[in-house]
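#structure-requests
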Amino acid sequence: MNPLHLSILQTDLVWEDPNVNRQLIEAQLQALPAGTHLTVLPEMFSTGFSMNPTQLAEGMEGETVNWMKRVASDKRCILTGSFMAKEGDQYFNRLLWVLPNGQIGQYDKRHLFAFAGEDQHYTPGNKRLIASVNGWRIHLQICYDLRFPVWARQRSTYDEDGNFHPEYDVLIYVANWPERRSEAWKTLLRARAIENQCYVVGVNRIGVDGQGINHSGDSMIVGPSGEILYDCADRKELHTQTLDPVLLQETRDRFPFLRDADGFMILSDELPE
């Protein structure tokens, strides 16, 4: 692996206004450094965390997906974040992984936030997404997934020569996580880094949403031993961080506890209809 140049955008979102949010985000991305490999946007970056998909959700040929393709191409980097997706008569909180060449990977949020009624409006996903860039394996998740460690747990393997291979190197959470639960957010991000011996990136929004809920951001980048490499609260910021593969490998070699982890299978990977 080579060093990974990763940029994260912590920003306010205009409630249920995709056109304005796309314009505001694109303006902020004008400061994106050349050579960035991956740029991460918050959860539902075009609308805020709204339970109004019947009015706002878009198909995979819609304006938000086309916008992501154009921005990824213009900036020559991968762009990721989630939006309201519509397929047939179903709606998804869908994270997209958009390459500069227009190819797309997708992950539908597994754990829907019933406390806010998300489970009444959206369909849960049942497949994880681990993408690759510059030799790094990136595991992508959304907000409330953070509270459920099994869904993020490394499923490491040995090859036929006996070499050990962790499943991924970076775990990313995009979020609309309220300020009143910010201590849980910050604590769980560090916990995921420690237990999976990987970098963890949490990208959250700031500002008050249409339900009057305040968000303090607290976006973080955490090292593989749980050390905080970057954190930011209560302000807009486009931050670029270089993730060091040498630090990651040295950490894993010095304390190789992943080799002792329990094997497991998630029996409900395929959710019932």
